[in-house]
Amino acid sequence: MEELVLLIKYFVLGLVQGITEPIPISSSGHIVIFRELFGIEAKGLSFEIFVNFASLLAVLVIYRKDIVRLVTNGLNFMVKKDMEAKKDFQFIIYLIIATIPVGVVGVLFGDAIGDLIGNNTMVVGITLLITAVALWVIRNLRGRKNDGDLTMKDAVLVGLSQMVALTPGISRSGATIVGSMLVGMKQETALRFSFLLYIPVSLGTGILEIPDIFRDPTMDTLLIPYIIAFITTFIATYFALKWFMNIMARGNLRYFSYYCVVAGILILLFM
Questions:
Q1: Which band of pLDDT confidence, cut at 50, 70 and 90, is reported for residue 260?
Q2: Which intervals of the chain form a coiled coil (predicted)?
Q3: How far apart are alpha carbons 112 and 106 in whole angstroms?
Q4: 192 contacts 66 by C-beta, under 8 angstroms
Q5: How many Å apart are CA 202 and CA 194, to the nearest integer?
């Protein structure tokens, strides 16, 4: 019976991760909350590595055509000097530039940030309220910049906004979408830039944290629950991101702002 309950808990955690990763309400914050509710102690980062990789796979599947186009055109520009491919090459450069801030801060201070506030529900409640304010600010923005209109300054500013999302409760997708729309990107461009930016960050983080998996003493006993969470996360992320694309197209971000206000207040009052 206890084993079944444990499997159900990790199924729910995978579902929470999968649903909240693509939408701007913070997957890390919700995982902290549900772990607290389920009484699951966070030992190491193995679980986060598993479910983040599952979300990454879902994003790769959805954006596979964009990825193939960018890689192909990027190579064509570098090798054949194909000027028609220049905009896609520049888009890749901007993604790399936007990755640098969070990469540097994550490597230098990631462990310290995690130890200080990683499992603090009070911090999650406060940062959800901050997320709500940010989403409210951009709720009516309608930018004009397409993929080919981006600048180095845009990439740096979005990269800095992503850096803020190292704090649990600050949504990574929310932070980058807010940053992208504040610099004038259209909703579709902001969404694409945000999730293509997620790929190198998630992949790099996963590679750096692989040793943690082998050092995790709980892997033998939790392997099956982790696999269940992985599969659940992949499926949930895929459908949640598809749904969020439709939400972005309609410009209904204010509903996520409402949710973050309610969730943040409830956390501060009762946890």
A1: very high
A2: none
A3: 9
A4: yes
A5: 12
Pull the structure tokens for residue 147: 């993929």
- Do 235 and 18 contact (CB within 8 A), yes or no? yes
Q: Which of 133, 129, 141, 202 is nearest to 169 (CA)?
A: 129
How confident is the model over 65-91, as pLDDT tens digits? 999 999 999 999 998 888 888 999 999
How many other β-carbons are positioned within 10 Å of the β-carbon of residue 133? 12
Predicted confidence (pLDDT) at residue 169 exceeds the cutoff of 80: no
Six token digits for residue 150: 């981006």
Rounded-to-integer distance, Cα 135 and Cα 147, Å:
22
pLDDT at 44 over 80: no
Are the CB atoms for 158 and 101 separated by under 8 Å?
no
Query: Cα–chain-centroid distance for residue 90?
Result: 23
Phi (first) and psi of residue 9, to 5 degrees: -60, -45
Q: Which residues are CB-contacts of 114 (< 8 A; sequence separation ≥ 6)?
A: 45
Taking CA atoms, 209 is separated from 171, 237, 241, in Å, by 21, 21, 25
In one letter, which amino acid is 236? A
Question: What gap in Å lies between CA 93 and CA 80, rounded to an integer?
Answer: 17
Q: Residue 116, Cα to own-chain centre: how many angstroms?
A: 20
